[in-house]
Amino acid sequence: MRRRLAAALLAGPALLALPRGPARAGDAPPPALPALPRLQPRRWTLANGLQVLALPDERRPGAGVVAVQLWYRVGGKDDPPGRSGFAHLFEHMMFKRTRHLPDEAFDRLTEDVGGHNNAFTAEDTTAYLNLVPSAHLERLLWAEAERMGGLQVDADNLRSERAVVQAEFGQRVLDDPYGPLFHGMAPAFWQVHPYRRPVIGRIDDLDAATLEDVQRFHRSYYRPDNAVLIVAGDFELERLPALVERHFGPLRAPGTPVPRVTVVEPPRQIDQRLVLTAAQVPAPAVALMWSGPPARHPDAPVWRLVAALLGDGDSSRLVAALVERDRLAQGAGFSADLLADAGMLNAWAIAAGPSVQGAEPRLDPRLVRLEEALSREIHRLATGPLPAAEIDKARTRLLTEALSARQTAEGRALAAGWAEMLSGDAAAADLQLQRLATVQADEVRRLLREQLLMQPRVTLHYIQRGRR
């Protein structure tokens, strides 16, 4: 990731619509929110396979800005065996020189005219994001087509960007005392699916990469029939097809099919307990992980609501109980990582207070207390009362983020892109919002009972590496 995007934009399709649940006596009714605009993109496909989504801003013509985003159907799961981090490496390499552009030209094309650019790699996709004044739309279309078809994949670029990615690994994983914990969850949880390889990759895999490996990866995935171009904001819709055809039409799709992951993660049969160690762990931590549905599943919005109830903000159940009330943890959270092929649900907590010097880390009693506390709060939500005010508050938080995002060209393009990549159709973003609008407390409890209380889980203890 070149620059860190807001977490709300990386979480997937924005969620929309707020129903008014019955308020209990003494509860203030939830605030009325305006209806959020539906995406409703215009869609077409070029002869070379490039898909195009157009989202003109018909509510505010003349706003003056346009988002140009190119989403590729390649992510961390597509890294070749023994070459983890390739998709992420290519995110960086795509900012190097092309046939007609020098290194870092996208900064000049965007920032020098008052816009900006960014990029990120996820498990299922790599996306390149630009926002510029509308007068510069065609220039950005030309530039994106130029780097799709004219990137110079050479030894110098590989050497420089490999060093950048390895430095990023050090900052995000090695230099953060809890980086190894969050980096290690995927390998601990996934049994066979390539989601088990963290997107950022491994330093030794990147060291082993050859120029031929990198060029093969580029040919396989960076092609028009593996990409979705999204244009949103203030532009003339009737002119866009000709502009896109002019710049992207000449690009040829290879005659070979795009490689696709066909591995299916098997159902987990038994509980599993694992220990992860690191050289510097200020306080031990616990993570609990369960299987979840893919992002396109009808229950995906319910799980996003569950994540908000359990782990979003100081008033969420895990933070309020483990951090604020019982003082067992210095931090706690819950995530619903719902991806294109499958999902992982996880709860985590970091113990309060430092590790005890000289004590055996595996025997630290705080590990048991954290594990019990996480399980207890999840059980309470699954079996106890869930006040309408609490569910409405969590839903409002999600909707406030969605409302803010859909007021911008960039936010609408991101919502469409995530839905397209994770669910196969940008319309899924609106369908999931409709689903969120109907979620009731009994559905939340049912899912928690069926998925978290009755299904096998992986328990991960994160501790200081002991001396030998």
Automatic annotation (TrEMBL):
Q: Kindly state which keywords UniProt assigns to this record, in alphabetical order.
A: Hydrolase, Metalloprotease, Protease, Signal, Zinc
Q: Would the keyword Thylakoid turn up in this protein's UniProt record?
A: no
Cite the GO molecular-function annotations of the record.
metal ion binding; metallopeptidase activity
Which Pfam families does UniProt cross-reference here?
Peptidase_M16 (PF00675), Peptidase_M16_C (PF05193)
Know the name of this protein?
Insulinase family protein
Q: Which residues form the Peptidase M16 N-terminal domain?
A: 60-170
Per the UniProt record, which EC number(s) apply here? 3.4.24.-
Endoplasmic reticulum: is it a keyword of this entry? no
Q: Which family does it belong to?
A: Belongs to the peptidase M16 family.
On the tree of life, the source organism's domain of life is Bacteria
Species assigned in the record = Sphaerotilus sulfidivorans
Question: Domain Peptidase M16 C-terminal, which positions?
Answer: 209-398
Q: Where in the sequence is the signal peptide annotated?
A: 1-25
Q: Name one GO biological process term.
A: proteolysis
